[in-house]
Amino acid sequence: MSAINDTFVAPPCFDEIELLWQDEHLLLINKPSGLLSLSGKNPQNLDSVHYRLVQSFPGCTLVHRLDFGTSGIMAIARNKAINAALCHQFTQRAVSKVYAALLCGHVENDEGIIDAPIAKDPALFPLMSICAVTGKPARSRYRVIERFYQATGLPLTRVELTPETGRTHQLRIHCQQLGHPILGCDLYGGLEWPGAGTTPRLMLHASGLDFVHPVSGEAINARHAAPF
After folding, report:
1. N or C: which end of the chain has fewer CB within 10 A?
2. Beta bridge pairs of residue 146
3. Which residues contact 84 (CB under 8 A, 6 or more apart)?
């Protein structure tokens, strides 16, 4: 989750951050599931992507975040100028992101668009909610890769998700809205399906990130296959 309340204490994450690519300006990493992107206010939540990387790359900063349970590709800026340049690409929606996910149940259509505005709901913190009145525009595309059954008999759909906006918990709440929550999602119904309760992690992985290198101008097309 990207919004962590002060009572949440992350269990220890023993998985290493995988360095996928680096130059003098930026890093591309594979974040393990179960690791915070940024250290929390609670001193027990010190361990994070930023906390670990700054030990080896002083001055590095996060350009974007992944939820606590989400694994996959993150871009890390090695100085403030690079951070500003990359953040500009994100705000201009010039960055393309692709995620792999396992959804509960068998999704009926082979592809589609989920267009549902997302709002913060203080009464439900840290959950977000779909709200046509106060919500900010949010749009996600999905494409079915395969439909299958887990050994327990749980029907699952492997999908490719492409968020066109970048709202907090967007993919998680949009998949719930579709009627097929992401397997292992503790906030939006992904542990409630029969046979889903013992899922060890959120089955969501940032598998693709496309942007323009802010110094060289070359196209960066980062890919990392999902571990599930």
Report:
1. C
2. 158
3. none
Query: What token pair was written down for 10?
Result: 């992350």
Instruction: Please give the Cα distance from 134 to 128 (Å, whole number).
Output: 12
User: What pTM value is reported for the model?
Assistant: 0.94
Q: HSE, CB side, 13 Å, CA atoms: give it for residue 195.
A: 11
Contacts of 106 (CB under 8 A, 6+ apart): 147, 155, 156, 157
The CA distance from 213 to 73, in Å, is 15
Which residues belong to the active site?
A: 67
User: What is the C-alpha separation between 133 and 7, in angstroms, rounded?
Assistant: 30
Which residue is it, tokens 């579709």?
178
pLDDT digits (tens, 9 = 90+) for 94-121: 999 999 999 999 999 999 999 999 999 8
Beta carbons of 51 and 17 less than 8 angstroms apart: no
